[in-house]
Every structure is written in C-alpha cells, then in structure tokens.
Amino acid sequence: MPVAAYPLSLLLLIPAIGAAVVCLLPSGRDRLLKWAALIASLATFLWSAVLFRNFDNQSGSFQMVEQADWFRAAGFQVQYILGLDGISLLLVLLTTVLIPLALLSSWNVKDKLKLYLASILLLEVGILGVFLALDLILFYVFWEVSLIPMYFLIGIWGSRRRIYAAVKFFIYTMAGSLLMLAGIVILYFLLGTGNFDLVEMIGVLRGGEPALSPGMEYALFAMFFLAFAVKVPVFPLHTWLPDAHTEAPTAASVILAGVLLKMGAYGLLRFCLPLFPWASAQLAPAICILALIGIIYGALVAMVQPDLKRLVAYSSVSHLGFVVLGIFSFSFQSMEGAAYQMVNHGVSTGALFLLVGILYDRRHTRRIDEFGGLAHSMPRYSACFFVVLLGSIGLPGLGGFVGEFLILQGTFLTSVPAAAVAVCGVVLSAAYMLWMYQRVFLGRVEKEANRRLPDLSFREGAMLIPAIALSLWMGIGSGTFLRTMDSSIQLLVDRLDQVQNVQVVQNDGS
Amino acid sequence: MDLNYAALLPEILLAVAGILLMLAIPVLPSRQQVRLGYAASLALAAALVTALLQWGDHGPAFFGMVSMDALGGAARILFLVSSAAVALISVSYLKRERLRHGEYFPLLLMATVGMSLMAVSADLIMTFLGLEILSISSYVLAGYRRGDPRSNESALKYFLLGAFSTAFMLYGIALLYGAAGSTKYAGIAEAATQGQAETATFLLGLGLLLVGFGFKAALAPLHVWTPDVYQGAPVPITAHLAVGSKAAVLITLLRLLHQVFPASADQWQTLLWIASAATMIIGNVAALTQTDVKRLLAYSSIAHAGYILLGVIANSPRGAQGVLFYLAAYSLMTLGAFAVVQVFARREERFTKLEDFRGIGYRHPLLSVSLTIFLLSLIGIPPTAGFYGKLFLFSAAVEADLVALVILAVLASAVGLYYYLQLIVLMFMKEAASPPEPVPVPLAARIVILLMAAGTLYLGVYPAQVLSIAGEAAGL
Questions:
Q1: pLDDT in tens, A380-422
Q2: Which ipTM score applies to this complex?
Q3: Which of B:415-434 have CB within 8 Å of A?
Q4: Chain A residues within an 8 Å CB radius of B390
Q5: The total number of structural domains that make up chain A
Q6: Do B470 and A166 touch (CB under 8 A)?
C-alpha cells in the first residue's frame, strides 16, 4: 500500500531539512537548536514507523521503490533508486531510533553546538541513504557522505587522542571505499548493463552464461569485501575501532557502534553475497575463521581493558564477529540471526555507550578501577545497566539471545567446530561483562567521589527506557521483527542456492 | 585554406588588449594602475564570450596552422575561465604586496593567448609558438616578487629548466619533420600510417617531444622543478601554473597522442604508463611531509596530473572525455584552494605554513569551509567535482583494460588522504596558537572563492552538462 508518493525520499528529506533548519537558526539559542534537532529526528522516527507498519512482510523483494534518472550523459547513467526490503527495514528503524537517543545524550554539549547537531542530522541522512540506495553509485555517494560528519564528530568533540582516532578512522574507511569504487567501475563494464542498478546487475549475473571469470569474481569480491570488512570490522582490520569508539563523544560512539558498523555487515548481505555468490561461498570458510578469531580475540581483549568504553568497543569486535560468522555460514537461520543480531547489537551496545557516557558526565573518567559500589549510590542507573548488559551477553528474554541463538543454530548446521568455538565466545562475553559489572557496581564504595553521585535524571531515563524496552520486545516478541525479514532472507538464500556448487542449508520451516 | 581571422578572435582580442594595457602603463598615473587588472579581467571576459559564441565552429584557419574543433573550443573556454579567476585574485594581491600592476596583466593575457593557441593548433610549429608565448610570460610572472629571493629562485629555476625542455621539444619536432616531411598534425599522422611510425627518427622525435611535454606538465621523473617554482612564485601565478598552464600542456599532449600518434600507441602508452604510476606515487608520497601549503598543493597537482594521464593512456574518446572533465573539476578546486591561500597568506605571504591554518575553522568560516570543500574534492569525496572526475577517469581506464593502473591510482590516492586531511584537522580540530591577525577578504577574491566552491559542488551533484560538453569535445 503506497503511503505517499515518495515515502523513502521523504525519510531522507526530514533529517536533511532538520540539518538545514539548525544551520539557519541563530547560534546562541542553544535550547532552540537542540529542540529543533530532536524534533527533526523524532519526526524521522515517526515516519519510519509508518513505513514499518505499511511494510508487506510477504514480499521479499524491494518495496516502495522510487526510481528516476539522476543524470544521463555521454553514455553514462546514474540513477536515483531507493527501496526497502526486509534486510534494510529494521536497520532503518534502528537508525531512526538511535539518533534521537544520541541527541538526548548530547544535551550538555555547548561547544559549537550548531555544527554538532547539524553533523548528527547529516550523518543520519547518510546512513539512511546507505540502507535505502539501490544504485551502486548512489550507494557509494551516501556511503561517503556518512563518513564526513562522523570524522568531524570524532575530531572536534572527541576526547584527548581524538585527532589520531579521527584520521585513522577516515583513512581506514576511505582506503577500503576507494577500492570498492574501482570494483564498482570494473563490474559496470564487465556486466555491460549501461547503468549501476543493483537489481539489474544481479539479474544479468543470474541469467545463464557466467558473466565473470572465477579470477575476476575473486578480485571483485575482494574489493567489495575489503571496504565492508573495514567497516564491520572483521579481524584484523579492526584496529581503528577501539580508538574511534573510545575517543568519540558519547553520541558519536552510540551511532558508530549502533549503526555505522552495521553498514559494513549490511553491505556484505546486500552486495557481496548476491553479486558474487560463488566467490563468497569459496572464501566463506576463511572468512568464518577470521570471524571466529574476532569473536574470541575481541572477548579476550575486552576482558583486560581498564577503560569502560574500550571494553565496550572490543565487545563490539566480538559481537560483530558473530554477525559475520552468521552471514558466511550460509544457512537460512544463521543469516537471519546475523541480520537480527545487527539490530540487537545496535540497541544494546548503543545503550551501553549511553550508560558509559552518563557515568563519564558525572566523574569525567571511564577507568574501571575508579569505580566500585555504584549500586549503592546510583541504584536506578545500576539496574538499567544490568538489564542492558544482560541483553548484550544474550540472556534469554532479551534481544541478544534470539540473534546469537539463530546464528549458533545455523552455524551448527554447516560446521560443528565453528559453532563450538563461537559458543566459547558467548561464555567469554558473559565473563567480561559480569566481571566488569562486579568491579564497577558491586561491593563497597571505596572512593569518596562515588558516594554521592546523582542517580538518573529524567532526560537520561528518557533515553534509556526506549532502548531497554526495545531490547525486551526483541527478546520476547521476536516474531514481529523476524517476520519482516523472512522473505528477503529467503530470496537471498535462493540466489545463493542457484549458483553451482554452493550449498545453503534451507529453512526447515521452524 | 585561407586566413580566416575570425577563428582566432578571442586570441586576437587578448593580444590587442595586452598591447593596449602595456601602452597604458606609462600614461596612467600610478594610483590608477589598479584599473589595469579590471581591464584585463574585462578583456578575458570579452574573450570568453567570443569563445562561447564560437563553440561549435569547425574548420582550419591561418592556412592550416590552426584548426577549430570542439576539443579546442572547450579547452579555450577552460583556459579563459582559469585566467579570469587568476586575474581577479591578482588585483588585490598586487595591491597588498605593493607590486606594480603594470607588466603583470599584459603578461597574464599573453600567457592566456599562448595556452589558447596551443589548444587550437594544428601544426607543431604553432604548438611550439603557443607554448613559448605561455612559458616566457610565465617565467617573468614567477619572478614578479622581485624583492623576494624565493621568487627569484623560482623564476630562474623555471626559466633554466623550461628552456632546457624546450630544446628537447624543438629537437623532437625537427626529427619528426625529418621523418614525416611535415610539421602539420595531419601530415605527421598520415606519414605515421604509411610506415614512418616504425622508423627510429620518428620514434626518437616522438620521445623527445614527450620529454618536453613531461617537463612542462611536471610528470615524474621530470617534476623536480615544480615544488620550488610553485612555492616561490606569487600565489596567483602558482595557481596559473598549476591550473591553466598545466591544463594547456595536458590537453595538447592529449590531442597529439590521440590524433597524431595513434599509430605509435604501443610505444607511448608504455612510456606514459610508467610516468603515470611514478607521478601518482611520488606526488602523493612526497606531499605527506610538506609543511608549506604552497608546496603541498604543488605536490598535489603533480599527483593529479598522474591521475589525468590515465585518461590519456586509455587512448579512447571516453578517456579524452574523462581527461577534460577531470581538468574542469581540477581547475575549479585548485583555483579555489589557491584563492583561499592567496587571501590567507596576507602581506608578504607570511602565512603559508600549514601550522598557520591552526584553528582558523571557526574564525574565518568562509575561508575554512570553502577550503574544506576544495580539499574534499581533491580527495575525491562525493558530492564534489573530484569524485565524478575520478569516476569518469577510472571508468575510461577500466574500459581500456588499465585495471592495474586504476588500482595503483586508488592506492596512491589513499596515501593522499593523509595530507589533505591534515589541513582539515588543523583548521577545525586544533586550537589556534597565537591571537589572530585579521584576514581581510577582498570582494574579488571572495567572488572567486564562492564561485569555485559553488562550481565544485555543482559538478559533484549534477555533472551531466559538463560531462556531455566534455564528451562532445572528445568526439564521443
């Protein structure tokens, strides 16, 4: 059912207008600026909720598609194609949910507020564009557009080593993206579609004659995969992540961990697998091993971090390892689990960064040994932290469980050893998280500074409640969300299955 | 075959204007000399209008010494725009530096005549004359800050090495004449197809010609003069050297190789492949350690010439289209960047160190935001002109099976990220060290900066029009 003539463009337009309004409002009126930005982000969220309601679960292909020529000149055609399917829908929702929370978390920012708010809204445009674009050039444009605001967010409002972190983030990402650009151009000429329409390209690849030689498919897969793997990040390309997450301001950490990393995993699902199914399948074992290393390595390194934010950052490396494992385990369950885990990780890690930010606002330190016994002085905060933490380590009843379970189940079907190693990751994640909780919240208050910390304020509660509620909902009512993905994942699995020598474990209907 | 003066109307207009301005110098009281700059800008604007009106004209003129076609027409427009921007940022520059306006603008107009003649030339002698008019004017302009030893060094180095390379080129032309029996493009091309292309004389001639062009276009390993010359020259002249002059050489090279020497493609493609790879790598790597913004942009311009060669090596209309589009994009962003540097350098060009840009982000939003746009475009990030420039070049190169060189270009530009970012970091992410000195932004410079920024964004959002013009010029 069409809800408007250009539903998806509108989704991009609302935050863009918000950014423009923020820029035009007089600087100095801080409250006005913050409210304008918040209202724009809430309006985006409401509109995405409308889209969610109007989404047709039965169809696995793209919905609400908007297609128009962007320009066509001298044999070159770039199109403006937006579309929504089960894989992108939840990521869009995740983005629109997290941005208002991120804005709420930055209520105390005073320095260059206007630029700050405009950057966040612009970032939202870029991220949503990445999830909606179906033309490779358009996708690339949004992919890069999301890079600049984040670079400034880290570099201007970050903490001590912010510049190092920002430049590292930028160079890692951009080096990968440039390779992808070369890959896009090569693909364009090999397929001879005359345009960059993703659906059309996949159509050409599906039909009869193999359009790519094995060597070329490997090479192109590598070009795309590197760009996405940097973003995910896949071990050993993860080294930018702890720096960027730790140095970024709270809101940027939330967005970075919550949605920016998902752009990489989304790229794998949306581009790497359907465009290069054969190469994906051939390289899947190697990538799974990297993912497993990431899971275990991330968890072990997280365990010994003295800094709360770094701990959460390394836990992301570990959790994203699960997502990559799920994607490359080539079974219906594991892929659906990976897509689900992306969303869940966004919610729970986003919330964890919000929580760490709250603590940092009060004590201006994130060192674990500076705390202890916070449960006495901040009972509500500690309770919220605990719930979010349980969601992150995958306790049944919360979102993390569903995603991890599906991934492990699907992996088990294709490779028992891989699943066995991954299970260790689950155990380790419980260990480092709970140990951290014990050191920060339990026991007696040792430091005088921790004795009289104010508990959650109304604003802080307002940004945590939605995240916790969502985590609960995703744990208990997972059907609501899984249903939206089924058909699209099935379509992807069919695409892979149809390639010779690629075995995908099908959905057994459970 | 006849004279057909009308074909060269823009060039004639500029030459006459240049002579008139020179005559005006002794007559005009010194306080009025500022007007010379505006007069020169007007002459450039008039020439631009004429060139635009002549867009679409075809056919030979001056007894076949020049030939009008879409490529020449498009190139001419590009040079005129570039020179007009240079003239506009020069006016306030000369006033600020208390330099004589007198000879400056006639020389700039003459340089433009030279570039323009190169673009429409159909004869190696004509090409050589155009190049010499351009070069000799540029030698003098590079040393225009007579009181500054660096400017003297710049002019002398440029002159000596330039003269050296000219000799190479002339020798090459002589050999080609010996082999082909003609200096006309058409005659050489015809001789090449009749078996001359394989003779040693012909190939040696072509090789020497390429050496000469390599010098002028600052292709590695013949680029070593560039940083010193760019650093010492007055900023607007650096912009002229990096944009107009370089574009003129590259477009002439493109025309020669694609139209005159396609029969020897195997030979020159190999040579340029190596030159392109070396230029991209050396330009980007050497820029990493620069501390002066003029030197940094000098190395950056070297690197960009390396990318542009991709389109030349492709040896296809699409390659030529990519080159032209890239040159348009490159001109906008480089002129804009130099305009910002010109304004920011202040009296006696004291502030050209990278460190001087510390923390200016919020103090001078116009300068810092537009410089950021230019730098992002030089990196090649959408939605800026540089992105589509790279896209079109890369796709032409991929189409011509130059995948390895494209990958190399990608890796080299990944190296380049660092130094462009460094400047953005300094502007926005570091605190200013010392209390600020005001930066007056004269109106003309402001207009140039804003126009270039708008153009950079326009090409980044909607490249279609310029792309089809480039396609038409490339014969697509």
A1: 888 888 988 888 888 888 888 888 889 998 888 888 888 889 8
A2: 0.89
A3: 417-418, 421-422, 425, 428-430
A4: 181
A5: 2
A6: no
